[in-house]
Amino acid sequence: MKTALHTVSYAGVWIGQHRLTVEQIVSRAAEFGYDGIMLMAKRPHASVLDMNKEARTRLRGLLQDRGLGLACIAGYNDFGIGADRPDVPLLEMQIAHVTELASLAKDLGCNLVRVFTSFERPQLSYDQLWDRTAQALRECARRAADFGVTVGVQNHHDLASHTASLHALLKEIDHPNCKAMFDAWTLFLQGDDVAAAVRKMAPYIVHTTVADYVRRPRFVYQPQVVNFERQHDQVKAVPPGEGEVDYKTFFRTLKEVGYTGYVAYEMCSMLDGGGSEANLDRYARRFLEYFKTVTG
Questions:
Q1: How does strand 2-6 pair with strand 262-265?
Q2: How many CB atoms lie within 10 A of CB 237?
Q3: Alpha-carbon torsion 40, 42, 43, 45, what sign?
Q4: Which of 255, 269, 134, 132 is nearest to 189 (CA)?
């Protein structure tokens, strides 16, 4: 397995997070000892609005000069968008965007684009959202195949985030260029069996992204009963290996099923210790140390 640093980690997208340019992140990834990067395909990093021919050539050359691979292009989509305004072809725009990301991937020497499914909408039943998403993903896969690119569906958004549902979705789509970006932190939050989940998804897994978390219980005081009401736990990102996600089992099972692709590390939420450059660097370095420990 190879390591990649997700550029979102230094994108400044959450409160207090230090921001670096793509070029700076490439240099940092090489300095720390990563094998590649995972590229955020939106501003301030690699929006298709900004990545003209010259920019694509320049970035590909920079990666080659620093001896880094490009694990995948990280797309940001929601195929449920536009359900409230069917007169506006927002779903077509989403598919067109993913197609452009596939073109970008090809130009950068990469064969994988990360996509999401859909957030739920009150205007759509579950079956309607499922059908809409499946059709969109199938068309994205078909169009990406024209560029020699695969779309990887991350278990992140509402629809099909659980292992059983994601497996059913990919089986229904049944396209060789539609696979899974399968992450352990979702299994942790949903209480899924890590080893069983990896084995079930093994034929589809083409990438995984790592972040480690702890649960912090939350309660709201109810004075009328002199007691506390339990709320959803806050989930806080902590340095790799210091959280509750069972990565030892996850990576061991990945090795058992023969996975040899990229393992990307991301910092895309509020970190314990804050978002200073020094703390981001500490987490990024710590991941490589932890990864070597748990993978042998």
A1: parallel
A2: 21
A3: positive
A4: 269
Burial 185-205 (b: 16+ CB within 10 A, else e): bbbbeeebebbebbebbbebb
pLDDT at position 145: 98
**pLDDT at res. 200:** 98
- Residue 214's DSSP bridge partners are 236
Alpha-carbon gap, residue 106 to 62, rounded angstroms: 16
Residue 254 has pLDDT above 90, yes or no: yes
Q: pLDDT at position 105, please? A: 98
Contact in structure between 130 and 172 (CB atoms under 8 Å) = no
* pLDDT for residue 45: 98
Dump pLDDT digits (tens) for 66-75.
999 999 999 9
Task: Report the DSSP pairing between strands 212-222 and 227-238.
Answer: antiparallel
Residues 77-96, mean pLDDT to the nearest whole number: 95
pLDDT digits (tens, 9 = 90+) for 37-76: 999 999 999 999 999 999 999 999 999 999 999 999 999 9
Q: Which residues pair with 36 in a beta bridge?
A: 4, 69
- 30 within 8 A of 66, measured Cβ to Cβ: yes
In Å, what is the CA distance from 21 to each residue of 15, 39, 45, 151, 179? 17, 11, 7, 25, 30
State which amino acid sits at residue 53. K
- In the chain, what are the domain boundaries? 2-295
Determine the topology of domain 2-295 in CATH. Answer: TIM Barrel (3.20.20)
Angle between the N-to-C axes of helices 163-173 and 126-145, in degrees from 0 to 180, rounded to the nearest 10: 50
